[in-house]
Amino acid sequence: MLVNPADGRLFSGIASTICLLVITILSCFPAASIGGTTSLHPTQRPYRINSHTYYPIPSAYGFNQTGIASWYGDDFHGRPTSNGETYDMHGMTAAHKTLPMNTVLLVQNLENNQEIIVRVNDRGPFVKGRIIDLSYQAAKRLNIVGKGTAHVRISALSDGEKSESQMMEMAQQFYTGDFYVQIGSFANTDNALRLQNRFLQAGHKTLIQKYEEKQSAYYRVHVYVGRTLQGAEQARSILEKRGYRNAFVIAR
């Protein structure tokens, strides 16, 4: 049981299992390189599509986005993806315009509450208003093949640029590992400690992780929410509704 320190009400984390499939997908989009970025990994360099320049982000940590998902099928099956893999329409993968390659994403269909996990291995979609392109299999599991698109929320479960063996190991960790929800991030240590103490006093394991970036330091407060991804997502959703609006799940 988890207690919200703000109002003392109880809520239960729902424990269940999610099968993670880490395979391959999607089409290859032609990309024009932008000068002055030769030191970056090729998939992290800025690129231009239809007169618009896209800048891949260096880290997927804490990434959340809401928008329209679409999907690809037969026309791109067997063709190369942006990271050099071969698109498998039956794999659980996706394309995103700026996330690091191999980022693992939780995709939630906000229209029917179904969820899947995919791995980013391509760039796209380049249609206005769309945030992610899914493989046929991924779209089928979200029940959007017939409709073509759906309103979704995507949440990063890992940073990118992992090898295939590392991805399989991470998938196993997501299935059996320890899950936390980040409930706050502060530049001031005292603020982080106050929030941590509220949860500790309510009986919940709560940690503070220091994150340094250039000349700044941030103190991230993580509360333990169980050993299954779906249960962690249930806890995150409840915490978000109870005032922790930027809460997101972390696998440790």
Description:
- The chain has 252 residues and is α+β, with helices and mostly antiparallel strands.
- It folds into 2 domains: 86 residues, Alpha-Beta Plaits, CATH 3.30.70; 137 residues, RlpA-like domain (Barwin-like endoglucanases), CATH 2.40.40.
- The chain is built from 4 helices and 15 strands.
- β8 and β9 form a beta hairpin.
- It is globular.
- The N terminus is likely disordered.
- GO terms for molecular function: lytic endotransglycosylase activity; peptidoglycan binding.
- One of its GO terms (biological process) is peptidoglycan metabolic process.
- Its EC number is 4.2.2.-.
- Belongs to the RlpA family.
Topology:
Blueprint: E1 2-3, E2 10-11, E3 32-33, E4 47-49, E5 52-54, E6 64-71, E7 93-95, E8 104-109, E9 115-122, E10 130-134, H1 136-141, E11 150-156, H2 164-176, E12 179-186, H3 189-201, E13 206-213, E14 216-226, H4 229-241, E15 248-251
